[in-house]
Amino acid sequence: MVRDALGHAVPRGWQEPPAWARGATTIVALLVVLGGWLLAMPPGASPDDGYHLGSIWCADGYKDDICLEAIGIADPSVALVPAPVLELSCFAYDGARSAACQLETLSGPLPELVATVTNINGQRPSLYYRTMHLLIGSGKDVTGAAARIRTANILLTTLMVALTAFLAHRRLRSAFLLAWVVAAVPLGLFFATTVSTSAWTMAGLSTVWANTITAMDHPLRRNRISAGLLAAVGVLMGLGARTEAVAHVAILVVTLGALRWWQRRERTLRDHAGRRLPRALRVSLGLVGLAAFVWLLDVVAPESADLDGAIGGFAEGYARLEARDIGDPFLAIVFEVPTLWSGALGDAWGLGVLDTPIPSVASLPIMGLFVALVAVGLQRSAQARILAVSLLLGALVAMPTLSLLRSGLLVYESLQPRQFMAMIYPLLGIALYRLGTEPPLVLGRAMRTTIVVGMTFAHSLALLVTMQRHTNGLLPGFDAVPRHVALGREPEWWWPTLPAPEVVWAVGSIAFLVLIVSVVRRFRPEVAEAA
């Protein structure tokens, strides 16, 4: 009997579309979804956009009318940039205020230069800023340059996801796509369409784990080489954009190394006959790889190569927390650390500068499905995957705990979910991935339907709230914090040449439905067994 993507019976004359058509559908749907998120918010909606745009403008040093030295200011990171670079974020931190203020601040005379903190002194990784500097043109059309940067990030994210899926073998491809789509809603989709450096976290670090596995396990040599190069590109993007990427890459190296080591430990000598490198050569290659990684850190991210000094200062930070009379400082932090993970799935923290709260009716299905998929994926799992997932969970606890202990701060006072969202992709992906010695992962009709309905509903609602927050602003709730949507109002801000917000929202929601259906169908019994 022939069945559709949800397992429902279809007419006998119907045939499964070819693989290239299914792949093209997935890619186009992802591109439309990201385009919907780009249009749902103006430039300036993500955290620290003034800093990121100023750093992009000054990425090539001091230039007339683009970036000038702030004479008389002692701080070497301060530079003069066009005022619209900062005025794009005029609506930030006030959820009741729409983005209409941009129309006023950007419609005046020629922009003046204003002082702002930038990365001109190289305190943070600069590869992202230098790359995006190529898109600003003359530097005077700030809105046009921001649109080009955001579009480039969308195309880059789509390209990295598409190439990763194309190079992977079928079991890994299915696990990677489902993990990526589930974990990206809503925070990942939000940042993938911004000018923030976190856009490269989505494009680069979210794909490294799958490309590394492909480079280790794919039967075709050309796929292994291509995936290895793509993994290197993802690592370079992460290290060239975010300071915490050093810790993320190190954790991925340890996790995937442990996965590979345990796999090899469980294989028989017959499985390795004629293919195993001499021990001395393997050790030499490992040392060369470690030396290359250290060199890359020194070149790409010199200021974050020591993990911002995370090794020292724990006793002092612990003492400061203890003096605040909060009980045991370690427990006070650990008890709240999971909110940094769930925040990536829309819970509690909100989007943007934390001024766009996602309703619980949207965040709960995402979190529930994430946990359910991890549990289903680990059922009767190989020990190698259990070890890898355990290492990732331990790292997700240790990273924020050690950082907060050192700084003497609690959760909600310093770190944010965007600094840890890169780790939830490999966690879910490895849980769903089936090794060659394991039976394929099959999801029943009820589970597939729940994923499609739950994720489509949650994504649609998150997109709607994001769009309403920027077109009209949100209404205050019982605590006077803007958090409620009022439909039917005339938009105060919108793109002048595009269809109405409702049309963009509907198209984005339908595109996500197509995307999640095309991904979930890979776990039908007949498709999974063919993989």
Write the layout of secondary structure elements.
Elements: H1 19-40, H2 49-57, E1 68-69, E2 78-82, H3 84-87, H4 101-105, E3 113-117, H5 127-133, H6 142-167, H7 170-183, H8 187-192, H9 198-217, H10 221-239, H11 245-266, H12 279-300, H13 314-322, H14 329-334, H15 338-342, H16 360-378, H17 383-407, H18 424-432, H19 445-471, E4 475-476, E5 482-484, H20 501-520, H21 525-530
Helix pairs in contact: 1-6, 1-19, 1-20, 2-5, 6-7, 6-9, 6-10, 7-9, 7-18, 7-20, 9-10, 9-11, 11-17, 13-17, 16-18, 16-19, 17-18, 19-20
Q: What does it look like?
A:
The protein is mainly alpha-helical. The chain has 2 domains: 19-44 and 148-268 and 279-472 and 502-530, no CATH class; 49-146, no CATH class. Helices cover 57% and strands 3% of the residues. The chain has 21 helices and 5 strands. The chain has a 3-stranded antiparallel beta sheet with strand order 1-2-3. Helix 11 packs antiparallel against helix 17 (383-407). The radius of gyration is 24 Å and the shape is globular. Mean pLDDT is 87; it is low at 301-312.
